[in-house]
Specification:
137 residues, mainly beta, five-stranded antiparallel sheet, three-stranded antiparallel sheet, 1 helix, 8 strands, globular
Amino acid sequence: MIKIIAYCLTFSLLFSIGGALRNYQCKKCGTLVRAGSTPSSLNCPARGSHSWQNLGEVGEENYCCKKCGTCIENRRNPSSLGCPAGNSHSWNHLGRVGDITYQCRKCGIAIRSQRTPSSLGCPAGSSHSWTKLGRYN
């Protein structure tokens, strides 16, 4: 009950101050940020200024790029533009966000999911091999 109230208060506050969180990724260094507007471009560790790509609105679906290994919780299929591994992302839908943490034994990615995520598109090659780590609290 407390989690639900906190969740509702967070989203009520968020929408009252101007909109939803979005996933931004720097195509130079790969840094991933959740923000209400484009983050500062200062001090990219790769080369001078960050070059942010808006991947889409934070949501309840898990996606993973099989090229760069970026995993995000997005509302719908993320933008394919600006993959740090070169050109465009190649997203795979892994399933709905949930309260169980799973980790791939091959690439090390850990995500929160309702059930065992899709095995498609492991950045370490062919398919993910998921291990259930436990409930997220």
